[in-house]
Amino acid sequence: MRGLAVVLFVPALAVWAEDALETASDFDTAVPVTTIDEEYQYVYDQVCPMCGGRYEVTEQSLVFDEDGVPYDILHAKCGGCGAERDFYFDVSALPWFSGAWDEE
Fold first, then answer.
1. What's the pLDDT score for residue 19?
2. Alpha helix (H) ranges present in 1-104?
3. What domain range includes position 59?
4. What is the number of structural domains in the chain?
5. HSE-up of 28 (CA within 13 Å, CB side)?
């Protein structure tokens, strides 16, 4: 006898998964941070909407939008199912971008 896979569609879970994928997914939804540690903690606190696993950061990139605002993009992979996604962070408040290191 072969196994039978049953797929249930739960609207509330689908909305949660959609919201989870939209947060920090581009420049418009980037999470503002004041330390690099906050970025990594944010990613580690996220739950994969596909399997409930946790993400692990595999790559970090610094980019600037068309207005020159700096963003970190952390590429992450779910340790449970292997799903990958990018998390965007507004890093303009970090000392080296905000000018805080220039003040004495």
1. 52
2. 11-22, 36-45, 95-98
3. 31-102
4. 1
5. 1
